[in-house]
Specification:
Udp-n-acetylmuramoylalanyl-d-glutamate--2,6- Diaminopimelate Ligase, Chain: A, domain 1, alpha/beta
Length: 124
């Protein structure tokens, strides 16, 4: 399936808040970023992979909890970051999330499970 076809099916009007509420995500830091639109998801624990391939507006799904995650999320203009497996962010990560106004959320799900749940929401 080509990228153009794939993107046509995404529910573009979903906000991070709507996603967080529907998927019962824990909110570590939110602010104005909860109004961000969700344009898709990207699952990876390799920061260089996300830097190279994640697209603006995507939600980054990862188990990484250090502040470099928020720096990359800001650089790539991602809509939110979701920490999986019940992981919690470091204090400096929280501070940067607040500064950058990028929602930092959490789930007890494994990355595979959460990615599937988000995919089904975006592709009804």
């Amino acid at each position: 399936m080509g990228k153009e076809t794939f993107h046509k099916k995404i529910k573009y009007d979903m906000t991070v808040k709507e996603m967080a509420d529907a998927l019962k995500l824990r909110v570590f830091s939110a602010g104005e970023g909860m109004k961000n639109k969700v344009a898709g998801g990207y699952t990876s624990d390799l920061l260089s992979d996300v830097m190279g391939y994640a697209d603006t507006g995507q939600v980054w799904i990862t188990l990484q909890t250090h502040k470099n995650v928020m720096a990359i999320a800001s650089l790539k203009e991602l809509s939110a970051v979701v920490l999986v497996k019940g992981f919690e962010p470091d204090e400096d990560t929280l501070a940067l999330a607040r500064q950058e106004q990028i929602p930092l959320l959490g789930t007890p799900d494994q990355a595979f499970e959460f990615s599937g749940r988000l995919y089904r929401m975006l592709h009804p």
